[in-house]
Amino acid sequence: MLLEMTLRRIGSLDAGAMEKAQRRLDSLIKPPGSLGVLEEMAVRLAGITGDPKPQVRNKTVIVMAGDHGVVAEGVSVAPQQVTAQMLPAFVGGVAGIGVLARHAGARLVVVDVGVAVPVEFPGVLQRKVRAGTGNIAVGPAMSREEAVRALETGIEVAQEEIERGAGLLAVGDMGIGNTTPSSAILAAFGGYTAEEVAGRGTMVNDQVLKRKIGAIARALQVNRPDPQDALDVLSKVGGLEIAGLAGVILGAAAGRVPVLIDGFITTAAALVAYKLQPKTREFMIASHLSEEQGHRLMLEQLNLTPVIHMKMRLGEGTGAALTMHLVEAATRIIREMASFDEAGVSALEEDKILK
C-alpha cells in the first residue's frame, strides 16, 4: 500500500548537515544569530535536504479542492457551487493564490479530489475520490478506504511534482464549508469543545456561527472519532481535500522536500499527517498565523511557530506562497553571504560583544 510505504520512508533530519549549516552561519559577517528566523530556517532546510548549503530550485503550490456535506447544516454563507466556480480562477491565475504563486515564481497545481460536481475545466487535475463528503453532523464524512485513497492521491501528486524537480512545496485548499471539518479534527485530536475550536470562517455571522458550533458538537457526538487513530478521525469528521493535503505533506516528507503549511485548513491536514507519522512535523514550515480561531491551537499541537503574521484568512495557499520568498532568502543568506575570512573582515570577539 502506498500510504504504508510512504510512512515508512519518512526519516529524521540530517544532524550532520544541520551542524555544518550552523557553523557556516556563525562564520558569516554578522553577529551570530542576528538574522533570527532566517538562520533557523536555513538550518532546518539543511536538515531536511541533507545539504549544508541548501538552495531553492523549483517551487510548487498544490491546491486540493473538495466539497462538504455539512454545508446542509447552514454552516457557511457561501453556496457550495462556489468551490467549482473558483477553480477556473485558480488555474487562470486571477485568484489570490494565482497572483501570489506567480509572484513567487511557483508552479500552481490545482487538484479536484472531491468536488461535488464534475469539473472539466482545462488545467484542473482530475483525481476525484468521490463527489463530496457526507454530512459529518449525521454520520461519517467518508469511509476509511476513501480516506486512504484521498491520502494516496495527495502522495502521488507530491511525488509527481518532486519528480518534475520541485524543491519546495506549499499546500493550499478550496472547499466551501471546510472550516467546520477542520475544527472538528482539531477538537477530536486536542480534546477541545466545539466552542473552543469554531471560528467564523468566511463572513459568518452570529447565527451561522451558532449553527456551526452545533454541527461540530453533533459530529463529535455521532461519530465518536478515536484521537488515537488518525484515519478514524479523518474519515469520520474530515474532508477529501484535507486528506489530499495530508497526503501531499506525507509525500513531501518522504521525498525530503520542505513543505510550507498555509492556514487553518492545511494545518488540519498537517495535524493528520503528524498523527499518522510524527516525524513528518520536521519537514513542515508554518507560513503564517491565520485569523481563524483555532489556528493557534493547531500550531501549538504541532509545536510549530509561524513565520509571518499578516492577519490573513483567505486560505488557498496564499500565506504559504508569500512565505516562499523568505525561505528562498534564508537559502541565499547561507549560500551567498561571505564569511569573515572570505571578506577579509576581522571576526567579532564574543567577549567584546558582551561588553
TrEMBL record:
E.C. number: 2.4.2.21
CDD domains xrefs: DMB-PRT_CobT (cd02439)
GO molecular function annotation: nicotinate-nucleotide-dimethylbenzimidazole phosphoribosyltransferase activity
Coiled-coil portions: none
GO BP annotations, alphabetical order: cobalamin biosynthetic process
Keyword Glycosyltransferase carried by entry: yes
InterPro entries, per database record: Nict_dMeBzImd_PRibTrfase, Nict_dMeBzImd_PRibTrfase_bact, Nict_dMeBzImd_PRibTrfase_N, Nict_dMeBzImd_PRibTrfase_sf
Name of the protein described by the UniProt record: Nicotinate-nucleotide--dimethylbenzimidazole phosphoribosyltransferase
Organism this protein belongs to: Pelotomaculum thermopropionicum (strain DSM 13744 / JCM 10971 / SI)
